[in-house]
Amino acid sequence: MHGYVLADVEVGREAEFFGALGSLPQVLHVYYLFDQYDNLFDPFAYLLEVQCESVEELVRVMRKQIRSLPGVERTALFMEKGVKEPSFAKTTGVLKT
Question: Count of domains in the chain?
Fold first, then answer.
């Protein structure tokens, strides 16, 4: 399962974030996102390319590992439409489109 996690990282904590990010083998690539409205006080946005064995693992990596990295303020998960829905989504409504 291939997905992307958007992670907002607190200004000044990028070094801690990248130091800890190296411990996650599921993260293949990291892309810095910026636009004309960036300023020194906004969180830095990074797009993490993630490879996992299943949707459940992808969700677990985002919730339990990426969200707990130093400086991470917010995350969002993007994955291919049409993937098999994880079992918890049927009862909680999580990942419904």
Answer: 1
* Inter-CA distances, 78 with 36, 49, 50, Å: 23, 10, 10
Confidence bin at 38 (pLDDT 50/70/90): low
Q: Give the Cα-Cα-Cα angle 79, 26, 74 (nearest 5 degrees).
A: 60
Q: Which residue has tokens 């009862």?
A: 91
Within-domain flag for 66 = yes
Cα–Cα dist 40/47, whole Å: 19
- Do 58 and 77 touch, CB atoms closer than 8 A? yes
| CATH number of the domain where residue 7 is located | 3.30.70.920
1-12 per-position pLDDT tens digit: 889 999 999 988
Range of the domain at 16: 2-83
Asked if residue 92 belongs to a domain, the reply is no
Residue 90 in this model has a pLDDT that exceeds 60? no
